[in-house]
Amino acid sequence: MSVLQALDVGLAFLVFAVAAWTVFAPGPFAATVGYVVYGLLLSLVWIRLFAVDVALTEAAIGSGVTGVLLIGAAARLRGAETTPAEEALTGLTRLFAAGLCLLVAAALAAVVLLLPDQGPTLAPQSMERLPETGLGNPVTAVLIAFRSFDTMLEKVVLVLGVVGVWSLAADRYWGGAPGEARAERPEPTLAFFAQMLAPIGILVGVHVFWVGADEPGGAFQGGAILAAMWMIVMMARLTEAPQASAFWLRLALIAGPAVFLAAGVAGAVVAGGFFAYPPGLAKPLILFIETFMTFTIAVTLPMLVAGPPRREPRR
Amino acid sequence: MSLALDLFSIAAISAGVFFFLAGTVGLLRFPDALSRLHALTKADNLGLGLIVLGLLPRAESLLAALMLVAIWALVQLAGATAAQLIGRAVRRKGPAI
Amino acid sequence: MSDFLLATAGAILFTVAVGLVRILGGPGDADRMMAAQLIGTGGIASLLLIAAATGARGVDDVALGLAILAAFASAAFVNSGAPAEEPDPNPADDR
Fold this sequence. Notes:
The structure holds three protein chains of three kinds. Chain A is mainly α. Chain A has helices at 3-23, 28-48, 52-79, 84-87, 91-113, 123-133, 138-146, 148-166, 188-211, 219-235, 247-270, 282-306. In chain A, helix 9 (188-211) runs antiparallel to helix 10 (219-235). Chain A starts with a helix and ends in a 9-residue tail after the last helix. The mean pLDDT of chain A is 87. Chain B is an all-alpha fold. Chain B has one domain. Chain B has three helices and no strands. The model of chain B has no long low-confidence stretch (mean pLDDT 87). Chain C has five helices and no strands. Chains in contact: A-B, A-C, B-C. At the A-C interface, helix 1, helix 2, helix 3, helix 9 and helix 10 of A face helix 1, helix 2, helix 3, helix 4 and helix 5 of C.
């Protein structure tokens, strides 16, 4: 067995062990930390599977956005009392749940193991047509050129998520700002960290987005890093979350999918098909759409993490 | 010359692995949270720094080498901040929070 | 040489995985955060070694992303656990 194979096997065992521990962890906070570790190991796995774009997304979302979200949620749960319903989870229910999970896992394993060696795929055709899009990264081409309608719908789902989170606010807080107010004297360590990291992080986020045309990267990864930078500045309380009723915020939230949809509809007029791009203009158009998408993602993810408004709106 | 560089890489990377080992041993064996934090941060930064040092001769270009150094500097920043934050949390709430 | 780099990456991962015991045991949440931090740095080190050994493109960017986000979990942990320094003017705790 070569060194690389041994490394892969070791990594697989490690992922499995961490996942098992996360399931049996003593309490929500421990499970959350286990989940963050699991995400990190998973991005290593993606790299070994030659899916660097997915690894970048897993790193950006798992350690950044989702980790913060879950840790915040676990901390809030810690304050709440355990409800009686939790005690009533009988052995039979647990057995049933475990059986269901095993069934799903077995089905997935069967599907993966029974795949034919040369499974049905459109990859060769996409690679053939790649030069027409002007892009060098096939993943970006699939996301924004060959399968663009799906990607736009995914961004719409994000907006719906924000609406759902905001709708959890009490009536009198609707339209207010989530999170805490800006601190008069922010905590020095976090403030220093945010002030040092945010400029660098913004640069890296823009770089990852821009380089996604030809190298691993793209709008979602870049947007996630930019989102994390805004989040750390809010966590350091150097700035406060904007009001949910702010016009610029709502415009930013819909800018990405709106521009995408406009480009798709314009494609029906100009390029002869819904979501078709005029040849020769494909790459600039793709980058144009991606810019707005990155902006939307960078604004949406922190709003999802900030939660429902908890202060009355200022007129 | 390239043999010397290879030997340098091997030496630096091996030293880096040793520091990671030391950090983990410290994390597992030191008696209380603050001393474990100390072991973690020293070993983390030094271990990664030595590995970056060992990988510098193998970098493809000056820019790639600068990127390695930048990664190490960012981890330094993050590690220092995390150590301060965790240490403050331990102090505020007592050792077993 | 690349075999050596890969072996080192595996050694670091294994070493850092032993630190997982601290997550398992860990008498407190701070210990768990520390173990997560160790695994974060170890993961970045392994990534850099794997990138140098296999020459895959873009892996350096993943390491850069991980380095940027390394302290986020600790920041969230401290932020959510620490009590507010001044009382909230509009305490919101509707269920």
